[in-house]
Design the sequence.
């Protein structure tokens, strides 16, 4: 039985070693070129702080979700490549957005038009559909 485990470990180590030798696998283009970093920063609207894309995370421009039903905004954010999403009660009443279709987006962070990594979290400030945004 010990021989079987040793052979399995050696085979796994050999596969890892071979994968590490592939020059194309090592250069995934995950770090942005200086021109891309400058372009990412230049697209950010005033007052927002762009987050540079993390290694392996593509950059995207954050769409404008203000006025949309929360569920639609979440769907749109995911379609744009953003999957880390949160929401909060924009009126400060600490209500939970249990049924996303009953809430609308008033604010978002980062701001619309911000170029950032798709690993950036988008937070929506929401109110109930029948309420006015603060």
Sequence:
């Amino acid at each position: 039985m010990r021989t079987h485990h040793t052979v399995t470990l050696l085979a796994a180590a050999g596969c890892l070693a071979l994968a590490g030798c592939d020059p194309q696998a090592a250069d995934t283009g995950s770090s942005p070129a200086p021109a891309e970093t400058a372009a990412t920063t230049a697209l950010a609207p005033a007052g927002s702080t762009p987050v540079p894309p993390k290694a392996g995370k593509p950059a995207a421009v954050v769409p404008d979700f203000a006025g949309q039903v929360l569920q639609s905004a979440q769907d749109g954010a995911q379609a744009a490549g953003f999957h880390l999403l949160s929401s909060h009660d924009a009126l400060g009443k600490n209500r939970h957005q249990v049924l996303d279709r009953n809430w609308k987006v008033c604010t978002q962070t980062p701001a619309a038009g911000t170029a950032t990594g798709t690993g950036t979290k988008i937070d929506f400030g929401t109110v109930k559909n029948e309420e006015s945004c603060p």
